[in-house]
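Amino acid chain
________________
===
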Amino acid sequence: MARKPLMAGNWKMNNTIAEAVVLTQEIANRLKRAWPDKADVVICPPFVDLKPARTVLEFDKTEVAVGAQDVYWEASGAYTGEISVPMLKEIGCEYCIVGHSERRTLFGETNEDVNRKVAALIAGGIAPIVCVGESLAVRDEGTTLEYVCAQVRAAFAGIEAADAAHAVVAYEPIWAIGTGRTATPEQAEEVCAAIRAELARLFGDEAAEGMRILYGGSMNPGNVEALLAQPDIDGGLVGGASLKAESFIQLVEACVR
C-alpha cells in the first residue's frame, strides 16, 4: 500500500509570535504548489503561535497543516495551564504531538497519560502523532524492540482499528534527539518495521499498512533521503531542522521526489 509521506516540524519552545509569523511565511513562500499532492506538511509551533501561524497559511492559501505539541485529555475544567482538544480544534489544528520524550522525561508523562490524550484527540477529530522511543541505556541492554512495542501497545490501549487509522506514530530514539547523533537507516528501519508489526497485531495487517510511521531524531538534509528510502519510514518528525525554512523545505522536497 502506498502511504503518503508526512513531514512534521516540531518547533518546541522556540519563536515568539513575530518570529513564528516570519518563519511560517518563509515556509509558505518556498513550498511549491504541487508538493502537497505528494506529501503532507505540518508545522507544530508553541501554543501562543498556533493561531498566528494558521492565519498566515490561510491568507496565503498554503496547504500546510498546523499541529500542537501537546494537549490535555479533559475538554474543560480546573486544569491551570492546560489546553484542551476543543481549543485546538477551534484554532484549526489537524494534528497534535503526544508522548514526546521531552514530555515523558522532563514532565513525568506516563504511558497512561499518552493513552488518554490519544483517545481524546481521536474523539475530537485531531490526528495524534504518537511518539515512542528508547534511551541509550535501553538500546545498550538490547531491549529496544520490546520497549518500543510496549509503548505502542500502551498508547493505543482501547482504541479501535478504524480510529487508530487516523493516528501517526513517530519513532524517536531519545539518544539521537538534539544530539547530532542519528540512528543509521538500518537501525531506524528495524524499529519502524517492529512498530508496524505491532500495529498489525493490534489492528490487523490492512490498518497497519495504512498507518504512517515517522522517524524523529536529528533528521536533516544530509540523511533524509537514506532514511526515507526505508520501506517502513514514511516521513519525519523534525526539531532543529524545522526552525529554518530552507532546511525544512529541503526535507519536504525529499518526500516528493
Notes: The chain has a mean pLDDT of 96. The first strand starts at residue 6 and ends at 10. The chain is about 45% helix and 15% strand. The radius of gyration is 17 Å.
